[in-house]
Amino acid sequence: MNLITGIEQFAWIGWIVLIALFLVIEMLTLGFTFLMLAVGGLAGLVADLFGAPIWLQVVIAAIVAALLIFLLRPPLLARLRRGEDPTPTNVAALIGSSGLVLMTVTPLGGQVKLTNGETWTARIEEPLSLDPGVPVRVVRIDGATAFVRPDISVSEL
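Now predict its structure.
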């Protein structure tokens, strides 16, 4: 028995292992990509059971998986995420929030108190400093540091 004959004879075991592996990964990721690959593997297994050569099994599995990923996965993800709350949370919710300078803010450091009551270490990207009491707006968060800019809309009032 040569190697190719042995592979073709026991390819069904490989397909089952591959399908099981894809399903386990899908349970951990929940992105529908590995589910589509598992269904493609199932198509390869069915082709093997009908006696297709190994190259045709792989081609069928790849085509089925690619079609499912590009045609079925996007509507499934849209339907899954239809009920999500679009409100930003955690650090993303702080972007754009306003506050007041507590300790002078420079490019090296400082401290601000945001409108949600939290006190953050702050920096400004421009080569200037902001004195205590100056209204600011959060531009971005990097680790535990809020990058701020002067809030012109508040200071003009």
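The helical segments are 3-9, 11-29, 33-49, 54-80, 152-155.
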